[in-house]
Design goal:
The protein has helices spanning 16-32, 69-80, 137-142; strands spanning 2-10, 36-52, 55-67, 85-93. The termini are far apart. The chain has a domain at 2-93: Ribosomal protein S6/Translation elongation factor EF1B (Alpha-Beta Plaits, 2-Layer Sandwich). It is globular and about 60 Å long. 24% of the residues lie in helices and 34% in strands. By secondary structure, the protein is of the alpha+beta class. A hairpin with a 2-residue loop joins strand 2 and strand 3 (55-67).
Length: 143
Amino acid sequence: MRRYELMLVLRPDVADERSQALIDRTTRQLVASGGQIVKVAPWGRRRLAYSIDRHREGSYHIVVFEGPPAAVADLERALQITEEVLRHLVTRIERPVRAVRRDDGAGEIGEETALPPAEDEPDDEEGERIDESESEAAPAAIE
């Protein structure tokens, strides 16, 4: 199953009970279609970047879930016709690659997949490092 994040922006004039009922209905629909809820986080009311249906604020909610792609298609169809929803966005979350040792049963340990290097860790490669402040493009960018 793939991991997804659902961002819901609900109308600000919707009562808290109705917005909670909508979130509950959405999570039940995901579970019924073979998904699993990881996290539900209400973000509260926030100002929108632009007005949507004459609303300047919206009630934001985040739902992180795992499920098959068919469940996402059904969910989006249901959210498009729901009056309380101003906007919604479902985004697939990529999982990081993890180091795994495989045991093939013959007593030998299989190859280990490497993690990508972290950005803040220094590279172990030997060689000359280029100071970006001394490059040709740096003076033009500063001025």
